[in-house]
Design a protein that fits this description.
single chain; mainly beta; disordered N terminus
Length: 265
């Protein structure tokens, strides 16, 4: 004899400290009911309603892993370790100590993350990454395409004094320095192999400043034909230079090119 159809089976969830235990009990109940029903090939399940589990403001310590889940309305002061079942999770406020791993998961809404929290993307493909804030320390391997406006911010290193180091690793690929000493030494630092860097060199209000170019960590600065370009020495004028760092072991070079001279800035 076939089992009777199950109509409008509703699993209720609760919130608070007992939410996770209630959720586990509900899932176990569902599993037992479904297992019992499928023992007959003529079993029918109609109108089966299993609401998405809702947990209110849980605090989780351990390893939290989300597999194939959709997380909605998430705000998090800190996020870290554990395991979510697949499906839809509505978590108004989630506080986790440790590492949060999302596998095939979707986060919707406007999540907030603690300032000291790192988000690591480890899947093979990320077709769409949208950030409401600033992505820092992002490493992209392979061919990267950008659609729309892309900006590399210029870092103003300020006055040179008698010597100044332009650290590309710390302050970015695009930098500006104002010469305010007769013969300042400009040291280029922090280049990575294949990196291209630009330096805007500005004469102060006095002008007649003639810098020397130095490479840090054993690198040398080289120019076409071995000739260092003659800078514009007129007060308040600027020259622009580009450098390719070749990263050659033992004898790395910043390969310099003059982009333009005597700009009025």
């Amino acid at each position: 004899m076939a089992a009777a159809p199950v109509s409008s089976l509703v699993i209720f969830t609760t919130t608070g400290t007992n939410a996770i235990a209630d959720l586990n009990n509900n899932l176990a109940l569902i599993r037992n009911v479904v297992n019992a029903l499928v023992t007959s090939s003529n079993t029918l399940i109609s109108g089966l309603t299993i609401p998405a589990p809702t947990i209110s403001s849980p605090t989780i310590t351990g390893t939290l892993t989300v597999t194939g889940a959709t997380i909605t309305g998430l705000t998090a002061a800190s996020v870290g370790p554990g395991t979510y079942p697949a499906g839809v999770f509505s978590v108004p406020t989630l506080t986790v100590t440790g590492t949060l791993t999302l596998t095939g998961a979707t986060i919707t809404g406007a999540p907030t993350w603690g300032s000291n929290q790192a988000i690591t993307l480890s899947t093979a493909a990320q077709p769409n990454i949208t950030s409401l804030g600033t992505l820092t320390g992002l490493t992209v391997a392979g061919v990267t395409s950008f659609t729309g406006h892309t900006t590399i911010t210029q870092f103003n290193a300020g006055n040179s004094g008698a010597a100044i180091t332009l650290n590309f690793a710390t302050n970015g690929n695009n930098q500006r320095v104002t010469l305010n000493s007769a013969t300042p030494a400009i040291t280029l630092s922090g280049g990575v192999a294949g990196g291209v860097y630009t330096v805007e060199v500005v004469q102060d209000g006095s002008g007649s400043r003639v810098p020397t170019w130095v490479g840090a960590s054993g690198a040398t600065v080289i120019w076409p034909g071995g000739v260092t370009p003659t800078l514009t020495t007129t007060a308040s004028k600027a020259d622009l230079f580009s450098f390719l760092f070749d990263g050659v072991p033992a004898t790395p070079h910043y390969i310099g090119t003059t982009v333009g001279l005597a700009y009025t800035v």
